[in-house]
Amino acid sequence: MVTLANFGFGRILLHLRAMLGDRCVRFHVAGIIRELPWFAAALTLLTRARRRLTGALVLYLAKPAKRYSLATPADARSFAGILDPGDVLLSDGNTRVAALVKRITQSPWSHVSMYVGPLEEGPDPPCIVEADVAAGIRSIRLSELQALHVRVLRPIGLNDMDRRRLAEWVVNRIGGEYDLAHAWVLGRNLLRQRLPARFRLLPYTMAKNATRFICCSLLAHAFALVGYPILPVQMGVSPSGVDQRNLTPGDFERASVFKVIWPTNNVR
User: Fold this and answer.
1) How are strands ordered across the β-sheet holding 258-262?
2) How confident is residue 9, by pLDDT bands cut at 50, 70 and 90?
3) First-to-last CA distance in the chain?
4) Which of 82, 114, 161, 262 has the most CB atoms within 10 Å of its CB?
5) What count of Cα atoms within 13 Å lies in the side-chain half-sphere of residue 74?
6) φ, ψ for residue 226 (rounded to 5)?
7) pLDDT value of residue 243
């Protein structure tokens, strides 16, 4: 054993042998890669190329769509005075990714965010938290919804304390990353809904300590943690995780736990 350990090839053999009866597979794989510098360099190049490709794709999808048309643009001033922390804002978006989401989900809504109250002083402070595909979890101003079609939903039966807990939890997520992996799995699952059940993927599950979100999972996670599931199936979640299923922006509009408060002609 000592003799083998003196040579690179021998150390690889020792790692391979140890992997047969050891659960620390990652440790031994890392050890093998260290003994193969060219392989490690190739993996590094592939990782960098994948990141650059993903970044370029995200930037492309985040750009405004050329043929975006708006039937009834929102006037943020018309509903600014009725918003309470914890209110959910549905919007249709004007980007390529928004158009893609609407096409896949077959819904007029491509995005969902939460009103948390003013985070700064001033006439138009950041007061909405969202998970953006390019910028991650961030706060935006109400005026940034000015050119979009917006619908405001209010959770039914939540008291002021629960609303503050919701807003505080979402605000504390600002700066987190967008969960591209979840978005990919969600899109793939939605496309597979037309296939027989045996070809569909299992629901996506997110642990309580998750740090990456998409717009829907950010809000669904917050509501679930205060005991307010968006969909009935979430009532049976286990203590170790919150089942986000294939939640989309349109599901918030259809959920019976919300009521429409703006536009007033859509109140149900």
Assistant:
1) 136-141, 126-132, 111-115, 88-91, 150-155, 258-262
2) low
3) 75
4) 114
5) 24
6) -105, 15
7) 47
